Amino acid sequence: MSVHSPSRTSNNIVGVHFKVGKKIGEGSFGIIYQGTNLLNNEQVAIKFEPRKSDAPQLRDEYRTYQIMAGTFGIPKAYYFGQEGLHNILVIDLLGPSLEDLFDLCGRTFSVKTVAMLAIQMISRIQSVHERDMIYRDIKPDNFLIGRPGSAQENDVFLVDFGMAKFYRDKTTKQHIPYRERKSLSGTARYMSINTHLGREQSRRDDLEALGHVFLYFLRGTLPWQGMKAQTNKQKYEKIGEKKQTTGIRALCEGYPSKYVGVMYTMVYSIPTAMATDQFVKYMQYSRKLGFDETPDYAWLKKLFKDVLHDLGQEEEDGVYDWNLLNDGKGWQSVKREKPASRKRLMPPPPPLHNQSQPQHHQGTGEVHLKKNHQPFKEFSSRQQSYLHETSTQDKASCSNMLANGWRRIKALFNCR
Catalytic site residue 137? Predict the structure, then answer.
């Protein structure tokens, strides 16, 4: 479906008292504008969707926002209606998506940032499940942080409920029946294996898809990205096959690199093999859940709280990688430059035997750690055991781990 710029009234007013401002987003659904509520001067987001769309979503999305009203981490919907040839939905204006922030941070997040995000994202999906719905379109683009300068600027919000559906009756709590030969719903990169196999989605599928997002943040890419095929159907089949043949341990091992976690403790603070185990447990649990089984959300969140504990933190401190960009000025201060004008802030990686050099990630802008960022902490006895274990690794093993992890160190200094 082609996206046409929506027609607007002469004074750019929709829904009686919402003034349409500059365009801030666009997709297959339509266009998003920044707007102003003229009753209180609050900033809002205004979504335009062609009324003749093949698959209109805004009406269903509005209904979902009404169901989720008052839930933390879900934007408030103010208006739904028709203006000319378009459906209009007005919701809270938020900040950038996690995908946008991922780009700014060199397409990789630290263990700490992923752990804190995981806790918030699991909570958002738990809230959806508690309202008898499943989300069915987990991807970083649909998780946004709060508006800059607000008290919620580092809180994660879940948006775009166009594909959400009820998995159980709101009154009786009777779960929908298991079915097969279902069409694919969601984003192929992150969807669960069961979804690829045409099985009815339930809560377990949202959680497995979340796990794929967490690993995407850690790894920078997933093994099934970039697969080629003649048709989308064949491509999705190849992606599903790759997910099935990639073991969970192999998917998580070395991301983040244990060697990098030890050699560059000033950046990561802990030997990161400890964190790897928690991601493995998460994926194993989500893939073993029964179709109508209620997930143990508290246990899943504890996995990532344990990661933070191993980092030397008793609780979430709200300092994410994007807050550390440009000497702590944050993501808003990142200047976009042409790749040729970028300065090299890190030396080239050392030569590795029988290893190809990691590709240098092209970005635009610079990043520096905060001057008061001091992750130098004493190692616990548990951490010391990992240090000793790693220090006795054979040279080839260390070389392999360095190859996997070097780009993560560079990513902290090269952001676009």
Answer: yes
